[in-house]
Design a protein that fits this description.
The chain is mainly β. The protein is 0% helix and 59% strand. The protein has strands at 2-12, 21-23, 26-29, 32-36, 42-50, 58-69, 75-79, 91-93, 97-100, 105-113, 126-134, 138-141, 147-150, 153-161, 170-179, 184-192, 198-208, 214-216, 220-224, 229-235, 243-253, 256-268. The strands form five sheets. Strands 1, 17, 18, 19, 21 and 22 form a six-stranded antiparallel β-sheet that branches. Strands 4, 6, 7, 9, 11 and 14 form a six-stranded mixed β-sheet that branches. Strands 2-3-5-10-8 form a five-stranded antiparallel β-sheet, with no helix packed on it.
Length: 269
């Protein structure tokens, strides 16, 4: 594996995030809310909750839980206060319970207040998951015709960092190839070694060493928190021509685009 870190200092990334994180029955957005506050400070941000139903009123409740990523980037949820990085005890909202008529939307004020005595520099950032849960289930029928009660829950992630700017930092630690009887895939190993979350995109390019042709796989987003050790799996296309390849995995992340590259010589059979 060969890795090549470099910084494109003048390139700014402009990211657009969908304004709603939707499930049937409830929409809430934005999907991520960021607080930049030091100990002793408070910050308030607004989120919008909507009832897209045309004929059913919703009774809703707000709750908070902890979360972290596992090594494959999947969300792991825990009771509030479980993780050292929990911000759940610092969060309040103007309404814990409320109703939405069909088609109605409501803006909620979410406040985060960091205790003035907080001084644990070993935990640089904090997070919480805010859930909006339907409290009045709707009657329905499952695929077998049985009567069921349907209630939905959807959530958004809340992030807290210090007010001063912190530069994210990712380190690629390995780039490996794997195969079994059914498929061939790659694993990009990388760590978040910084003091802030690092989000970005992974692109993969395959250069055929025989004829010089290049194939680019669909880029995918990634999200990490400080201390994360990640294994990102990349399934090789089933129709990839057999031969010898140089494969490049390109990670692009941060407000000022930092790029890390890993290369792997690979024989596709």
């Amino acid at each position: 594996m060969k890795t090549h870190p470099f910084l494109i200092g003048a390139l700014l990334l402009t990211l657009w995030i969908s304004p709603a994180l939707a499930q049937t029955g409830i929409t809430i957005g934005p999907p991520r809310v960021y607080f930049q506050i030091n100990p002793g400070q408070s910050q308030t941000e607004n989120v919008m909750v909507s009832n897209p139903s045309k004929d059913f009123a919703l009774e809703l409740g707000i709750s908070f839980e902890d979360w972290e990523y596992n090594e494959f980037g999947d969300n792991q949820v825990y009771p509030a206060g479980t993780l050292p990085s929990s911000a759940a005890a610092w969060i309040s909202t103007d309404q814990l319970f409320f109703s939405l008529a069909p088609g109605e939307s409501k803006e909620l004020a979410i406040q985060m207040s960091v205790p003035s005595a907080y001084d644990n520099m070993d935990v640089p950032v904090h997070t919480s998951m805010m859930y909006v849960t339907q409290l009045n289930p709707r009657e329905g029928v499952d695929k077998d015709g049985a009567n069921i009660q349907i209630a939905v829950r959807t959530g958004i992630k809340l992030y807290r960092s210090p007010a001063n700017r912190i530069t994210p930092e990712i380190e690629i630690t390995n780039f490996t190839a794997h195969r079994d009887s059914a498929k061939q895939w790659l694993t990009l190993h990388f760590d978040n070694i910084g003091k802030i979350w690092a989000d970005g995109m992974i692109s993969v390019e395959l250069l055929n060493q025989q004829d010089g042709s290049k194939r680019t796989l669909t880029p995918v987003d990634f999200y990490t928190m400080p201390g994360d050790h990640r294994k990102h799996r990349i399934l090789l296309p089933a129709d990839l021509q057999k031969g010898e390849y140089t494969i490049s995995a390109i990670m692009n992340y941060g407000d000022i685009s930092t790029v890390k590259i890993a290369e792997l010589d690979y024989v596709h059979e």
